[in-house]
Design a protein that fits this description.
The complex is a heterodimer. Chain A is an alpha/beta fold. In chain A, 35% of the residues lie in helices and 26% in strands. A 5-stranded mixed β-sheet of chain A has the order 1-3-2-4-5, with helices on both faces. In chain A, strand 2, helix 2 and strand 3 form a beta-alpha-beta unit. Classes of the chains: A alpha/beta, B alpha/beta.
Chain lengths: 110, 307
Amino acid sequence: MTNLEHVITTSQYQEIIENNENVMICCGRMGPMCVPVYDAMEELTEESKNIKFVDMLFDIPDAHVIRNAPECAGFMGLPFTMYYKNGKVVKATSSIQSKEQVQAILNEVF
Amino acid sequence: MESNKYDVIVLGGGAAGLTAGIYLSRAKIKTLILNEGMVGGQIVLTHEIANYPGVENISGYQLASTMKKQAISFGCDIKQNIQISDLDLSGEIKKVIISNGEQYTAKAIIIATGGRSRELAVEGEDTFKGRGISYCATCDGDFYTDKDIIVVGGGNSALEEAVALTTYVRSLRIVHQFDHFQGFAHAIEAAKNNPKISFILNSKIEAFEGNEKVQKVTIRNLNDNTSQKMAIDGVFILIGYKPNSEKFTNHIDINPYGEIPTDSKMATNVKGVFAAGDVREKRIRQIATAVNDGAIAAIHAIEYIQS
């Protein structure tokens, strides 16, 4: 398990994106393409206090909010990573990202 | 700054770099591991390791985490997610400057920067990464249930992952640039005997096309130079690894394949600079051989700085 806050229900998901201005959610498994993204998020949690970093297990039923999100149409690589500003999706990526790539997205969207 | 002076700096925090860190720190050598990206290297990208002696079954992430903990427990400093911006390996005191301007010095350097998945570098590859192009069969295989896919490559990874992917897919074509495979005989046999697998040999992929995700590939036959477009649901690119040696091009000898030649002590052509792991010129790249390299490089680096 990661040291990030885990989202396990759609209501918790809704509450997080509505009550935080900037949110990054990584939805994956504890696999080779996902773990580096989680690790990057754990470091960024310390460095970017204005952003809420959370994870969600890809295979839990409530993760349909990410799996079936229109922004993830065509995604066929784990993890699915979503970025929200004021409750709206502003970016979504599929597959592995380095900390540098995640940081570039954070700088771009938040 | 005194705190930035080390006996040895290890560049890279994969199996070789962490092993060097463990050996050096345990010998009370002041050691710093600098790693671009997360510590762990290629091991972290391995789902399950079953052939590392003494460990029955472990995930790559767990093994790397344990190695990291061991290194830190002996006093090794580790900085990850840094970018190396400049190097001076020529003098007795070696210098490494990172992108925030901090400078680190050491009497010896061990280069253990490993490798990264080789890409085809063709049109559309960047666009469709994670959208039908994958480099990890165990991660993304289930997205291709009942789909028609291609695996590119002819080594053990490509052949073994292709067989594993047949659990999910309807059909699988292996596209390989030669008329023979580089994998072990048992891996070749398993692929050839699998009814879902067919082969497109002497061929290479030239382009990917699609809208939201990849839908077509262009394949060129290298024998008659003809090309064909093929409808496809996904492509797994498993064509080996490329050494992360570009930063050292003007500092040490590097062979035409991007690998760093060393002697049996893991010493490069530059005094006080050693290389270990997948970045080094060698044939077999396994966790066990990376660990071997890291230990040998560390011991000879200790001898070097104490001589």
